[in-house]
Amino acid sequence: MKKTRMLAGLTAALIVSCAAAGSLAAWEEQTRNGKVVRRTWTDETGAAAESPEGYAEVTRSYSGTTVTEKYFDADGHPAMAPGGYYGQVLTYGNRHRLEEAVYLDADGKRMECAAGYARVRHVYMSAGGITTSSYYNLEGDPVTVPSLGYSQIKNEYRGTTLTKTTYLDENRNPVDTPLGYAVMIQSVNKSSRVTGIRFEHADGSPAAGPEGWAVMERELDKKNREVSRKYYDLNGQLTDRGLGYAYEEIKWESGRECVVSRFDLQGQRVPMGAGYVSLRREMNRDDQVVRETCLDAAGSPVEDAEGVASRIYEYDGEGRLARVLFEGARGQRTENASGFGGYEETLDEDGFVARRVYLSAGGQPVNTAGGYSEIRYTYDAAHQNVTAEYFDLSGAQVRQE
Known about the structure:
The chain has about 400 residues and is mainly β.
């Protein structure tokens, strides 16, 4: 990025561009006091150009914890965002959690977005989980969103573990949704570990979820480690849900390693994936998977259809996935069928991926089979819409979505 003086009062303009002739639209940011106040898309001639979201410019104004976004076309006229609105007022709370979104028309007045509501509000528990999400019309009354089939989501927890989700209509009564149920219930043990999931209709009768199963039972050992997971239909019969396997078994080889296998309705083992029968997982002290290895029927490492036997996962200081590396069946660093040996990601302050760089088997940036070595992601203030820009090793932009 290059810094350039812009208008008086603006600290800097961040220009994201591509020097290669014929490059796709780039964007330029203006900031004030470290906050983005304007983003403008331009073509290779420097003229305003339409972004993948359909507008050429977005402005942001700030008032306390509230951010107001407005969208404009290349001629400076109000433009509609993909969600069917011309602007939005976003209010953030503790830890920069989005608490409210209000949608604006071309004149800056409240309007209903394309989904059929004018305002959505989220309430959080102290640990960060959402306790309610509520939708309202222009008059400020609760409204059932047609595409969702509900007006409010209500979540209940034991500690930080979700135990129940209920979908409610505008009168705050349970309502069956397009998901096939009104209530999702997670049973937990004394350690707040999930031991099962079941669904209910609005009248309290048993229901099946969107994957076709009605009950999931999860068996844990004395150390609260999962050892099996089985799915049942509304008749209480074991079901494969059309996925080719009915249940998984996890055998722990040590305190940090286990082998996951899948079985069909007849109890016969079925492949975990193309080219391998089971999967060995290794965990760290935080129960995060740090290595997954494909195994053949004899329990030996084997390469999958992508030419990878093991995937190594590395995390940053906050426990977020930062790097994935590939190994072959002999433990050597390798590249997959798409021409890369892993990737590393940089996250933004809200934990969303801002940049992904693809690596060779030797750990250096490399062009993938798709002709790019890096993807840069740009989000709107609510992280609802994202722009992906693809660059090759020379820095030339090769694609934008």
